[in-house]
């Protein structure tokens, strides 16, 4: 029973920790980029109006906020390695032959910082 309790506590801590870290990075990026912060505030004010809170029906209209969230995940992924994948058959990747049942770890951090893919990979640009 102690093992089950420890596993549940670890899962809870992992979920809250990654959420906190992501929110922390979002606030850091917004504080370091005042124009992005101003644009986010303006969008929320225009969508929410005089109400004191954002409701679920407002979410589809918050396009800039969505862009901020995606950009935070790109620059600061909560888990830089994606879930491992396993090949079902022999494949060749850039000249390397991979037999069936080869396990692959995908480095999301490297993909999201690739200068061949992103014009300014280290710049926060929602």
Automatic annotation (TrEMBL):
Gene Ontology biological-process entries: serotonin biosynthetic process from tryptophan
Keywords: Oxidoreductase
A GO-annotated cellular component: endoplasmic reticulum membrane
InterPro entries according to UniProt: Cyt_P450, Cyt_P450_E_grp-I, Cyt_P450_sf
PANTHER family linked to this entry: TRYPTAMINE 5-HYDROXYLASE (PTHR47952:SF1)
GO MF terms, alphabetically ordered: heme binding; iron ion binding; monooxygenase activity; oxidoreductase activity, acting on paired donors, with incorporation or reduction of molecular oxygen
Protein name as annotated: Cytochrome P450 71A1-like
Gene that produces this protein: LOC107785548
